[in-house]
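Record type: ASSEMBLY
Status: queued
Input:
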Amino acid sequence: MEGRSEGWFETKEMDIRSMPSSRHASLPYRVGVPPKQNFWTEFSSTVKETFFSDDPLHSFKDQSRSRKFVLGVQAVFPILEWGKRYNLKKFKGDLIAGLTIASLCIPQDIGYSKLANLSPQYGLYSSFVPPMVYALMGSSRDIAIGPVAVVSLLLGTLLQNEIDPIKHPLEYRRLAFTATFFAGITQATLGILRLGFLIDFLSHAAVVGFMGGAAITIALQQLKGFLGIKNFTKKTDIISVMQSIFSSAYHGWNWPTIVIAAAFLVFLLVAKYIGKKKKKLFWVPAIAPLVSVVLSTFFVYITHAEKKGVQIVKHIEKGINPASVSEIYFTGDYLLKGVRIGLVAGIIALTEAVAIGRTFAGMKDYQIDGNKEMVALGAMNIAGSMTSCYVATGSFSRSAVNYMAGCQTAISNIVMSVVVFLTLQFFTPLFKYTPNAILSSIIISAVIGLIDYNAAVLIWKIDKFDFIACMGAFFGVVFASVEIGLLIAVSISFAKLLLQVTRPRTAILGKIPRTNVYRNIQQYPEASKVPGVVIVRVDSAIYFSNSNYIKERILRWLTAEEEQLTAAGLPKIQFLIIEMSPVTDIDTSGIHALEELLRTLQKRDVELVLANPGPVVMDKVHASKLASLIGEEKIFLTVADAIQTCSPKFAEEV
Amino acid sequence: MEGRSEGWFETKEMDIRSMPSSRHASLPYRVGVPPKQNFWTEFSSTVKETFFSDDPLHSFKDQSRSRKFVLGVQAVFPILEWGKRYNLKKFKGDLIAGLTIASLCIPQDIGYSKLANLSPQYGLYSSFVPPMVYALMGSSRDIAIGPVAVVSLLLGTLLQNEIDPIKHPLEYRRLAFTATFFAGITQATLGILRLGFLIDFLSHAAVVGFMGGAAITIALQQLKGFLGIKNFTKKTDIISVMQSIFSSAYHGWNWPTIVIAAAFLVFLLVAKYIGKKKKKLFWVPAIAPLVSVVLSTFFVYITHAEKKGVQIVKHIEKGINPASVSEIYFTGDYLLKGVRIGLVAGIIALTEAVAIGRTFAGMKDYQIDGNKEMVALGAMNIAGSMTSCYVATGSFSRSAVNYMAGCQTAISNIVMSVVVFLTLQFFTPLFKYTPNAILSSIIISAVIGLIDYNAAVLIWKIDKFDFIACMGAFFGVVFASVEIGLLIAVSISFAKLLLQVTRPRTAILGKIPRTNVYRNIQQYPEASKVPGVVIVRVDSAIYFSNSNYIKERILRWLTAEEEQLTAAGLPKIQFLIIEMSPVTDIDTSGIHALEELLRTLQKRDVELVLANPGPVVMDKVHASKLASLIGEEKIFLTVADAIQTCSPKFAEEV
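Status: finished
Output:
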């Protein structure tokens, strides 16, 4: 990285031998061998590029000690930095956005807590403490923090595999707090160890499929409330749910419930449609859920529909979050289970939050430090687990509303948090007559947005392998369970990476007419091959995982060409040129493979020629003495230079 | 792959608009968009390249049905194919080689079975059946089959973690056969499913380290026999072993044993040295072990040294392999343990055998089908597990002797097998007075060859990361255990691959003086940057695992350049050219990253230009409409073409 500034516009005096005056001069340009690097320089630059690629200490350079301390505190609490520039105009934006997302989150929270098999107040709790903590520590200006559908479902599924939430509600809740605690620890640890890049291993395609599948699963779960069914399966796969629904048809369905649910679902969807058509009316879908709750509650209250079998919320605990530090399992069997569940839920929550953070930061063109963001999310969940919250993260739908309502900073989260506080303190009794069906309708209309049909179509168009990952995750979630879907998504993502490093592409190059450029003859069918020469480009670093394959693949190209030549009665191949431009690195196995290739070629009377090896490769080719085995004079800067030497007649024909 | 023959020496008539008459014409050459590929063509070619890259059915093409059947049988039993050309001259070579490796393997077998905590005859059994089966099915002509030191140690360690071999010898033996059976199943399955490439994931460096560590561990274990210690630790780490040795010093050491062992170790090492110096005398180290056994046995017999505390073999069961099918655990707790141990031992055995097969095939220039080879090795271990053998594989040292003794085909294994048969049938009583110390000396002198000091030095020179993997595996085995060492080796190997796909290299390019070539300015410091243009080369496919990093890294390059320019008071950057030659593939996340990059650049008033995208990338850039977002006219064949358009003045200066 050093020395980058050299070479600016200067034309230096150079050794004339290594500098032919024109491309077509007889002396080819020598391939540069980079200066030998010290092991520690090399090692530390790799470490830096891996873990500190964003240069987080850039602003700390050349500062006094006290200034460094201030910067350090500001790094942990960005609010101290941007708070100084906060003003009334910004607050106006934040206030409106905060009120809007509060009206959206309150009914959602109550519904989502059911997905996690917890009482409704826990959803509200999770919209009180975590947003506060995030506002102090987070760096995204647009994210809206709170419980979200997918994480609630995931947590609920994983937890009920361990403890029955109906038979042992206390143990279940304690395990939930334990999982939340370790979700926070996981997130903060990834951030502190600067391992944030690990979440990039969940590919976009897999996330699209997983989210879509989770949305379907969540919507299906809502049919319980929507149809007023009392005995519902605990499984989440589509087959069990459908069986459960149809076996309870007629006698198990409650018609007043269905009428209320359907009417309000239509209302919510129309509101959503309006918001989509006219961006200015974004507030219509944003306040529609609260309006539905108020209207339906009032309706049930005056008609006493609860006596006709319409299930209602009945009771939400009044008052703010009780402390729950003592409920976390720090010992015993459940500790390990909590760690495992927290790890999975924490990573999925991270994926969602980081994706949101990046998206909106890109739209407003500001930077987000992924690792710092993870520390903030982790801290907020750790704090949450001690105050009766379950895993919170950034919500896609609420963040979009927050953005459209004109939020300026994380203060909008504080506004929302204050509204939730007031609700918990004073308004929970008002929810007594809220029908469960309305919560189901709200959740259904919310999760529909997670099914990204257009993204799936685009994935199909761009990359078929990605599409398989996407569909694998989708069907895994829908037909098996969220865990299976997640497992499929991760496995396919990894398989793709491993495939890339195991079976890299190779291509035969030809000369593009009337130029000096050699390119893949599949992409440029007009390119012509050079008689007596095979030019192969290897499209990957040569590592232990692919060195054997590459060696054998090159020999296979050579054999195929020779068979064609023999069939056509043409002279045999004399040179094999390997275009090394894409070969960015080589390891010991790769060097061995090249040595073996060289030996085999010598037996076949074919000369091995290298074109344009990069700095790392040149370094290693020299370190291993392979350079002298091949012959320094057979390593060229470009394929054109190599052809100039191997087949001068052809080169001149142009 | 089709259409490869087009373009041979022809100069086609081309559309004149897309074909400038010279490199420097004003109209740049258009980047080729490959014809749209059918999904199934693409998918099947990927599958073919992944699993059938060696085109195993090549010879089956255009053959009659009966011929296909014959070819199929020959594919499973290659002996039917090469057997036809077998003659007396070849047999002479095989006979000598077979006798030589037999003399070497008999004492080794007896020693190695102790490493596996089994009675001596099981080592001999394993040198009788498996080589026979391999000779019928294998395709390597030089490999010598039988028990080997590292696999014996690994198996012994893994098995004694489950069952105590002294307290429960029967169960221990049964579990050993179970593990052997599943080792065979693992090997055959990998071969049949054509997943042979999976063993390439164990890097050469890791194998060097692991083997070296295992050799040290094995040698340390031999100190028990060498020093005549009776109470010896069961652990294999160097610290426990050293404690065990020093705590029994003086009172526990047996001096007559040490004298015999040391004398013969010197003899063996001298023989080894002679064999190394004069290639013609290869038979000296090959028969030295048998000579030592004969001499030492005779010596003990006449001096009755066993009464002075020199431990002897005492008893080897007479007769050939008893059947053991009924001893394999097909149900119960031990089944799963057997599967797990078999999996690990099978894969390590494979790694060794395949490496040997490849090495010698390369030296004699014949082809080996790795997958077929795995089926042969698997079949031989399955057969072995039913006839009281434990895991056998190819031995490095014996294969080298086999090769040097002039073996021609796998018949040398049959010769060896026959000698072992005769030994089992008639000569086992002769080993009664063989001192254990001599076996220890033989094993020590054999495993010393596994410590490949030169390879480690070369690894250090070529690739520091590989060296870390090598040392990790080495110290893991020496200081912890073989399993830990193996785990470290595999983990570091994988970490390296993941690092490669997560943090690819990028480079800033400059123009090499008086050429039209743009190269890494770190490798060619004389290259000059183009005013107002930043040229970045991305050295990897752009996938979900690195798309964010690449986007941010490119922006970081741009920012750094701009900071320099501002400091120098020079005009700002107008163009960012991404040289895409090494970008062999891009997925949906990669396309999204480029879109985001484009948007950010637009905000900064910098134009994005692409140079030389490959066929796959062009295809996807078009499928996703990114091409029209960037502008077709901003995608060039070469960086030179792009500069020609972006900075015509600079391009003409040359």
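Annotation: The beta strands of chain A are 145-146, 393-394, 506-511, 518-520, 533-538, 575-579, 607-611, 635-636.
Annotation: Confidence is low (pLDDT under 50) at residues 1-26 of chain A.
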